[in-house]
Every structure is written in structure tokens, then in C-alpha cells.
């Protein structure tokens, strides 16, 4: 779709195509496993979505997939009215949004969100999401279409959460994302990698959720211009959308080689136990700190199943567990990286 079309239409087309590509590739990895469940839904207040969910049941004591345990690749395209309290909060980053404390404004949001929890402990969990948000003026009665655009921004990122540390694979993941970023400016990867390390921090554990990747929010022309002293000018919406497309298209090459290389590795009950403990940490971050999860759970008429699809099917918490406390163990090597994030590329 050319740049002559509204950004909301271009983003909708992009996330639809990207969802299809990712789900198709994941299903191709294990053709004997159940297919993803396609759950199309509509939002009474305006909009629609498609949740593609894989949940691997245990039948007669055996998993029906050796590759995936749980996965979700969801898209949503929604619109409606933004209430004054939400507008007030958003004005912190977008002063162009009008606010009188009484008036609601129309909004539009489109995005893709995915989480993959593999079966094998030697395959990392991965998360990615890319989204577009805009606010417009209220149109006069009898007029059609959206009103004048008053604010817009993109957000998103992708990050890797291994159970066992393979530095070569972590470097591959980061290098793939960096290469996608570098097509659009050398300032992008360092800024968004640092933001990712800071955001995915489990504060009460003083460890990151995983080995990072990219994270950014409220990315608009003004925000981009403040990223670096080397930035010569603000980027246009078309340029930032091209950046989002590059990152979305980088997901499969960043992760699928890692998934393929490790899905058939033998593992023990000890490896599985550590995997479930690390998934417990994943749950802690998502339910305690993740802004998207918390916002979704507070939203009236929210689709709770879609919001919580990011959680693993199984997890574990042990009281005062000793696993991972030995710095020389494989588990301890991971913890040392989570306590002190590294530069991978």
C-alpha cells in the first residue's frame, strides 16, 4: 500500500500480512502438531482483532508438539473515544493533544503482539510487538471519516528470554535487530537496546526478564529528534513506519534459526525444572510491571484471554530455591547476565 493511503490503513495491512507470515512459519516447523486456533473478535466500542493461539495439550502422557508449548500471535485494530483522564496522561509526551478536562477525543490503535514459549528448555522464549496510535479532533455532526490528526506515535520492540545462555545465539538475535535498525539510523539500536534493558527489569529481584533486545514507546517525529545529538532532523511518519516495517520483518530471521537449532536437543528433568522457574519470573514481570498488561486489565470490556496469552502454560515457584545460586553452573551463568546486562554487538 503506497504512502498516499492513511497511515492507519497501511499499518492495518502490514500487521495482517506479518501475522500470517509468522503463524505460517511456526506451523510449518511441526506439521504434525495442532494448528493455531484462529479466534476472530469484534470490539463493541469499535474495531476488531484476530488472536492466533497455540496451546499444546498433553495426550496420554505425551505432548502433541515437540516444538511449541504455548504461543500467541495477535493483532488488533480498534477505535473509540479517549476519556479526559487518559488524554491528560498522554499529554506528558504529546503536548499537541487538546485538553480541557471534560472533552473526550477519538482514537485509533493498531498493533501486533506475539509471545512464543517453546517446549525445549534450550530454546528461548521470545516476545515482540509493534503498534501505531493516533488521536484526532472530534468531527462535526453529519461529517464522515476521521477528524484532523492532532497526535500520532509508534511503539514496540522485541526481546529474548533464554533459560540457558548461548552467547552465539543471543548475539545473532541482537545483530539481526541492529541490522534492521541501522538501515534507518545508527542512533536507533543503542538507544532502544538501553531502553529495553531498563524496561524489562524485575525490580524486586534486581534482574532483567531476559537478555534484552529493543524497546521504544511514543516514537514520533519529536521523540526521534531527541534521541541523539547526531540526529539532523525529525523523521517523517513515512520514515518511522518504514523503520517499524524493518523491525517487524526482522522477527522471523532473528528467532526461527534459534528455534530450529535447539528444538530437538535432549534435556533432563533438571533442565525442565529451571525452565519452569524462569517462567515464574516471566509471569512476575508481566503481572507486576508490564505497562501493556496492567493497562489492558484495567480497561473496561477488555479481552482478558488475549491480554494474558503472554503467560506460559506452566510455571514454577520454589521457596528459597538453590538452583542458579552457583555462579559456575549453567544456571548461574544466566543469572550473572540478568544481574548485569551486556552489550552483545
UniProtKB/TrEMBL annotation:
One of its GO terms (molecular function) is coproporphyrinogen oxidase activity. It is an enzyme of class 1 (oxidoreductase). Keywords: Oxidoreductase, Porphyrin biosynthesis. Pfam families: Coprogen_oxidas (PF01218). InterPro entries: Coprogen_oxidase_aer, Coprogen_oxidase_aer_sf, Coprogen_oxidase_CS. GO terms for biological process: protoporphyrinogen IX biosynthetic process. Coiled coil: none annotated. Transmembrane segments: none annotated. Belongs to the aerobic coproporphyrinogen-III oxidase family. Homodimer. PANTHER family: COPROPORPHYRINOGEN III OXIDASE, MITOCHONDRIAL (PTHR10755), OXYGEN-DEPENDENT COPROPORPHYRINOGEN-III OXIDASE, MITOCHONDRIAL (PTHR10755:SF0). This is coproporphyrinogen oxidase. It comes from Scleroderma citrinum Foug A.
Amino acid at each position: 500500500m503506497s504512502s498516499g493511503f492513511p497511515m492507519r490503513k497501511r499499518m492495518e495491512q502490514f500487521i495482517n500480512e506479518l501475522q500470517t507470515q509468522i503463524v505460517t512459519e511456526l506451523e510449518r516447523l511441526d506439521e504434525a502438531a495442532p494448528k493455531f486456533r484462529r479466534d476472530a473478535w469484534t470490539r463493541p466500542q469499535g474495531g476488531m482483532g484476530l488472536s492466533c493461539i497455540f496451546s499444546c495439550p498433553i495426550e496420554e502422557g505425551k505432548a502433541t508438539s515437540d516444538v511449541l508449548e504455548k504461543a500467541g500471535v495477535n493483532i488488533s485494530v480498534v477505535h473509540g473515544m479517549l476519556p479526559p483522564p487518559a488524554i491528560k496522561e498522554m499529554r506528558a509526551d504529546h503536548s499537541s493533544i487538546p485538553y480541557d478536562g471534560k472533552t473526550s477525543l477519538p482514537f485509533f490503535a493498531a498493533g501486533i503482539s506475539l509471545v512464543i514459549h517453546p517446549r525445549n528448555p534450550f530454546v528461548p522464549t521470545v516476545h515482540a510487538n509493534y503498534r501505531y496510535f493516533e488521536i484526532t479532533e472530534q468531527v462535526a455532526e453529519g461529517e464522515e471519516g476521521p477528524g484532523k490528526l492532532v497526535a500520532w506515535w509508534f511503539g514496540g520492540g522485541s526481546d529474548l528470554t533464554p533459560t540457558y545462555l548461548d552467547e552465539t545465539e543471543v548475539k545473532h538475535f541482537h545483530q539481526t535487530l541492529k541490522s534492521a535498525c541501522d538501515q534507518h539510523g545508527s542512533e536507533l539500536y543503542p538507544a532502544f537496546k538501553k531502553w529495553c534493558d531498563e524496561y524489562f527489569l524485575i525490580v524486586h529481584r534486581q534482574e532483567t526478564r531476559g537478555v534484552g533486545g529493543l524497546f521504544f514507546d511514543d516514537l514520533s517525529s519529536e521523540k526521534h529528534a531527541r534521541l541523539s545529538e547526531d540526529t539532523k532532523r525529525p523523521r517523517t511518519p513515512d520514515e518511522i513506519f518504514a523503520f517499524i516495517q524493518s523491525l517487524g520483518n526482522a522477527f522471523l530471521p532473528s528467532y526461527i534459526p534459534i528455534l530450529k537449532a535447539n528444538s530437538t536437543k535432549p534435556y533432563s528433568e533438571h533442565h525442565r525444572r529451571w525452565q519452569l522457574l524462569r517462567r515464574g519470573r516471566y509471569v512476575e514481570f508481566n503481572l507486576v510491571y508490564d505497562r501493556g498488561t496492567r493497562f489492558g486489565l484495567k480497561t473496561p470490556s477488555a479481552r482478558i484471554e488475549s491480554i494474558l496469552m503472554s503467560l506460559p502454560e506452566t510455571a514454577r515457584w520454589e521457596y528459597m530455591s538453590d538452583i542458579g545460586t552457583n555462579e559456575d553452573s549453567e544456571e548461574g551463568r544466566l543469572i550473572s547476565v540478568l544481574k548485569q546486562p551486556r552489550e552483545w554487538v
